[in-house]
Q: What sequence folds into this?
């Protein structure tokens, strides 16, 4: 079971995306819990102020420290060991190793920034870690928080239909996934590779591994440097390097 407390100025953004299919069932089965809090409820004065102009000038607004820290402290009160995560382009890139580590926590508090960002003093003492979902700027941290909730939830026991799904997918071994096929065997003359209909599971396993390596070699050679490659993998790569462009992308 993992609990996500989300701090946002737009709580309704979380109404629908997390309440379909796998994540809906996971909440019903109490494998994950998602609680959304409106930072505006911690705003200052009768206008519930949450942002202000930046010291030093410049356009845009900055989220004030008081409402954010009040919200974080209020959510953490019953759960002092909760890990506070700020979604920000300045954060550590979210990858599978990171996702697996986050899934070890029983409780994550996700802080969603808006405008130009949050007051720097919140980061210092009230945030445990900062995470980025990619080197681009969003209008808010909400979509990044949803991405994190989705991918961390997949690591939780029983959330995915068949248990080892999360251990089979892309990046599980730091490689891109092999091609998938289903019926019909012949689609407009495009046929399913014979090996997949052979019933020879050893052969199928070897074909899938080779396809996974080839696709990673072609599309994400950076991943190969960190992958744990067998002699067979290395032989295949050497052959492709030899053949050069000829074996380029049909993969
Ligand atoms: C973001 C990202 C992101 C920056 C300014 C929210 C926006 C605005 N969060 N990964 N990339 N956040 O762009 O996590 O406050």
A:
């Amino acid at each position: 079971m993992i609990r996500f407390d989300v701090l946002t100025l737009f709580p309704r953004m979380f109404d629908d995306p997390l309440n379909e299919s796998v994540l809906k069932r996971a909440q019903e089965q109490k494998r994950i819990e998602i609680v959304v809090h409106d930072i505006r409820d911690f705003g200052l004065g009768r206008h519930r102020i949450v942002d202000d102009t930046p010291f030093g000038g410049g356009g845009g607004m900055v989220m004030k420290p008081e409402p954010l820290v009040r919200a974080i402290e209020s959510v953490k009160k019953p759960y002092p060991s909760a890990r506070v995560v700020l979604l920000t382009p300045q954060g550590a890139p979210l990858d599978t190793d990171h996702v697996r580590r986050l899934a070890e926590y029983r409780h994550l508090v996700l802080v969603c920034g808006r405008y130009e960002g949050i007051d720097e003093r919140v980061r210092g003492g009230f945030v445990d870690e900062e995470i980025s979902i990619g080197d681009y700027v969003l209008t808010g941290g909400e979509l990044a928080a949803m991405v994190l909730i989705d991918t961390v939830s997949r690591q939780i026991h029983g959330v995915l239909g068949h248990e080892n799904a999360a251990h089979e997918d892309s990046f599980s071994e730091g490689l891109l996934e092999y091609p998938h096929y289903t019926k019909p065997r012949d689609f407009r003359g495009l046929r399913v590779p014979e090996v997949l209909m052979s019933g020879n599971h050893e052969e199928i396993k070897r074909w899938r591994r080779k396809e996974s390596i080839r696709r990673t070699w072609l599309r994400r050679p950076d991943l190969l440097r960190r992958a744990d490659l067998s002699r067979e993998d290395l032989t295949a790569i050497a052959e492709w390097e030899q053949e050069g462009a000829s074996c380029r992308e049909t993969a």
